[in-house]
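Just wondering, can you check both lines?
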Amino acid sequence: MLGVQRPTVNVAARGLSRAGLIRFRHGVLTIVDREGLQASACEDYRLTNELFARLYGDDATFRASPLVNGR
């Protein structure tokens, strides 16, 4: 879905985990510090949220769909 290889995702996830922003184990990712994660995100995250709010209302925020059983 991201268009990158698994080792690239692992490197990024390890960095975010070391920063205390996420936990991941056996394909399950848990956000530990949502505000910190948003602060460390690139400008695209903020722009996506602003577009989503314009399209669906000011109180709406962009949320990725949770994966169920790795699907």
